[in-house]
Amino acid sequence: MVAWIVLAVAALVVVVGVVLYNRLVRTQQMANEGWSGIDVQLKRRADLIPNLVDTVKGYASHERTLFDEVTRLRGEAARIREDDVAARGAAESKLSASVGKLIALAEAYPDLKASENFGKLQAELSTVEDEIQMARRYYNGAVRNLNIMIESFPSNFVAQLFGFRLRDYFEIGEGDRAVPQVTFRG
Fold first, then answer.
1. Helix 2-57, helix 64-79: angle, nearest 10
2. Which pLDDT tens digit goes with each residue over 97-118?
3. Whole-model pTM?
4. For residue 155, what is the domain's CATH number?
5. How far apart are CA 93 and CA 87, in angstroms?
6. What is the distance between the alpha carbons of residues 177 and 89, in angstroms, rounded to a whole number?
7. Cα 130 to Cα 127: distance, rounded to the nearest angstrom
8. 11 belongs to a structural domain
9. Within 13 A of 63's CA, how many CA atoms are on the CB side?
10. Which of 90-93's residues contact partners 24+ apart within 8 Å by CB, and which partners?
11. Number of structural domains, the chain?
12. Is residue 91 part of a domain?
């Protein structure tokens, strides 16, 4: 009789372990999917930026330092390892601030503001920024769920046993939220 009880308890522990492992895997895959969504949108934005820079250059050629900064920051963001979420967030935040300055620059050039090409690029960039925010919320929610499972009892034992690791949230720094300051040289 005792052997059956021990066997039943051991079977229950195995079943619970399998269920927790499968939940961890599912949650980890959701976080991977979320990061993939962010990455796709960041690449879309990176592809739009050269067109935006070229369009604005035609109207404001003397703003060379801003164009160089946007180009440099775009390159820096592209070179960061895909799995370095914190560094990618910091780089993308700086890039967003520079792109914001570029958009603000259009205010000083009525012809540029009225340009159909610029308007389309600006609308497309706005759509991509919205998509980045939605992807970011999804990713951060999936990471939150994964991190909770990794830190919660009893799934923390299974997570530790199989090497599941806490993930970083994709944060956007204050530079992205600040109103860009643009000075015009004449």
1. 160
2. 988 888 888 777 888 777 888 8
3. 0.80
4. 1.20.1440.20
5. 10
6. 13
7. 5
8. no
9. 25
10. 90/173, 92/42, 92/172, 92/176, 93/172, 93/173, 93/175, 93/176
11. 1
12. yes
